[in-house]
Each structure stands twice: as structure tokens, then as C-alpha cells.
Amino acid sequence: MDIQNCIVEENTSVLDTMKKIDAGAIGNAFVCQGLKLRAVVSDGDIRRYILAGGSLERAVYEIAHKEPIFLREDQEAQASAVMRKHFITAVPIVNEQGEIVKIRAIKEEFGESVPKEKRSLNLPLVIMAGGKGTRLKPYTDILPKPLIPVGDQTITEHIMDRFAAYDCKRVTMIVNYKKDFIKAYYKDCEEPREIAFVEEDTYLGTGGGLGLLKDKIEGTFFMSNCDILIDADYADILDHHRKSGSMITMVCAKKRFEIPYGTVELKQDGQVANLKEKPCFDYNVNTGFYVIEPSFLQKIPDNTFIHITDVIEKCMADGELVGSYLIPDDAWMDMGQFSELEKMKDKLEHF
């Protein structure tokens, strides 16, 4: 493993460290002075830091763990056992000067071709598939959005396959627009799937449609919009949700937007106060992927058009816990617009 792909300097920004971790394969970065090991930081550490309101421009050393686990060169044979004991994905091997000379990763213990085993979660999955997909017209004048092909599968087949890897094969699909088309497709589909269809008589929105499942789901469940794909550890998302005690957890993507112009801040008298060249702004964006407790359904008014975000705001007003799980921007694929659909196709071709 190339050491440079896994290390950052002490003054590297949190944002640039995120990019390094995303590009790597071990889920963390080793913070160094030159090659001398100083600290370690994981993607989870950064996610929690950002959710607490931390700045992406801060030096990563300030938030990293200052006592990283490492092995000396004469201890390298213990690498696999140490990784298993401490539940870490990689361990650096250092020389007498404390400089990293090698990084041993758990995946290399079994070979590059062995995929990471997914934990069996066996939770229900709800897919919101009732919308008209107006942003994808004229495609959706012919095909309902849940059946739009992305490569050699429909978008909803891609979604179900990702959850099936975690043994989440019981699917409820809430349908409305071209619902008979959707049901007929899956009835005649070569690969049988365990899908229960719930039909909206009128358009109820993502909240109202979900309310049709009131008293029909007993335990925790996943919910996904029908036009997104999330590349993340669904088991870790579930663990985070349960530890937080939240009624609902929203999976959010960290998005950075750059204004393509120099901006000018003015004083009250019209004099220039400040100039910023192409400023950037960071936002946590709702991806449309949730982990939900059945008690959340009781917050939804019957037979009423309402967005799920409105229900979430009601939960917060009532003092309920609403959690979040942060993922990198490039772990979220949204085909709601033509440009994003093409990006999704391209990414899946290289998946």
C-alpha cells in the first residue's frame, strides 16, 4: 500500500483530509510531520466533528487522536492480530525514528478481491415511488421514475440490491403515478423480489404516503426515495441511529458550493466593508435516506398531503430526537435531474 495515499501533514485542513480518506481504502488517515507519525483520524471522527459545527478549514491535527496504535518493524507479524483486537482497518509500521515505513491494511490480509462482508440487518425497506418525476420529463411521460434504467437495471433494482446485501429483502413500495406499470414490471421480472405495494389514492407527499404504513410496521425500518443511491455502511448508519436514541435519523451529505464570482460586503453607508474572491459555503444536504422508528408514523396526519420534512419539524417541536448521519458528497448519487442521471450511470459503470 502506498504510504502517501494514507497520510496527511499536521496542518492539512479537515476538508482536504476528508478527500484523502475518501480516495483511500482504509477509512482513516495518519497525521504526520514528514513521515513521523503524530496522530490518526477516522472518517467517523470527522463526521462527528462536522455535525458539532466544526470548521472544514481547521488543521486536522487539532481534532485527531494523539495516541495512534502502531507497531515497530520487529512487531510487524502481529499486524493482523492487532487490527482484529482493536477493530481497526489499518496499522502503521514505524522505524526507530517513529517514521512510517509501511502500512498494513486488514483487506490486504485476505487479498484485494475479497469483498467486505456485510452484516445481516434483516430490516424492512420502504421505497417512496409515487411521485411523477417531473424533473425527468419527457422520460417520465413514458416510464415512471422507479423504472428509469440506470445501466442494465432500473433505479429501484439498484436500491434493492444494495439493501439486499445487508439481508434487507422485505420491501414495501409506495406507488401512485403509473402504479400498474410498476407492479406489472416486477410481477414479470426475471429475478423474484419480496415487494408489497401500497397504493396512494391521491398524492400525499413523502410524509403522507409514509403514513399509509401506520400500524403496519412494528420495528425500525429503512426508507429511501426512489431516485437515490447511497454508498455507505448501512450497518454503521443503523448503529448510529440506535445509539442516538432518535425517532428518525436523516442521512446527510456534506455539500460545498462555490460562488463563481468575487463578492462584495457593504457597510450601511454603502462603503465597501470586505471583498471575498469566489467564496465557498458548506451545507449538510438531506439525501432522502432515513432510518425510522414506527412511532414516527404516529406523527403523520391521516390522508393529508405532507412532506416528510414537515413531519420531522413537528417531531423537533415536540421535543423528539432527530438524528443525522453524515456522508461525503460523492457517496450520494441523485438521478432527479438529467445531469445527475448521467453522472450516476457513469459512476455505476466503474463501481
Structure description:
The chain is globular and about 70 Å long. The longest helix has 12 residues, at 338-349. With 351 residues, the protein is of the alpha/beta class. It folds into 2 domains: 3-109, CBS-domain; 125-349, Alpha-Beta Complex (Spore Coat Polysaccharide Biosynthesis Protein SpsA, Chain A). Residues 110-116 have low confidence and may be disordered. It has a 7-stranded mixed β-sheet, sandwiched between helices. Strands 1-2-3 form a 3-stranded mixed β-sheet. It has helices spanning 14-23, 43-51, 79-86, 139-142, 155-164, 179-187, 205-210, 234-244, 308-317, 338-349; strands at residues 7-9, 28-33, 36-42, 71-72, 90-94, 100-105, 125-129, 149-150, 153-154, 171-175, 195-199, 221-225, 228-230, 248-258, 262-266, 272-277, 280-292, 322-327, 332-334. It has 10 helices and 19 strands.
Q: Structural class given helices, strands, pairing?
A: alpha/beta
N-to-C order of helices and strands: EHEEHEHEEEHEEHEHEHEEHEEEEHEEH
Task: State the oligomer.
Answer: single chain
Strand order of the largest sheet: 11-10-7-12-17-14-18
Beta-strand residue fraction = 25-35%
Total count of helical runs of at least 4 residues:
10
Uncertain segments of ≥5 residues (pLDDT<50)?
110-116
Roughly how many Å is the radius of gyration? 23 Å
- Total beta-strand segments: 19
Distance between the termini: 21 Å
The CATH architecture category of the largest domain equals Alpha-Beta Complex
Helical proportion? 25-40%
The third-level CATH topology of the largest domain is Spore Coat Polysaccharide Biosynthesis Protein SpsA, Chain A
Number of domains: 2
Silhouette: globular
Q: What integer is the average pLDDT?
A: 86
Q: Tell me the major beta sheet.
A: 7 strands, mixed
- CATH class categorisation of the largest domain: Alpha Beta
CATH level-four homologous superfamily name of the largest domain = Spore Coat Polysaccharide Biosynthesis Protein SpsA, Chain A
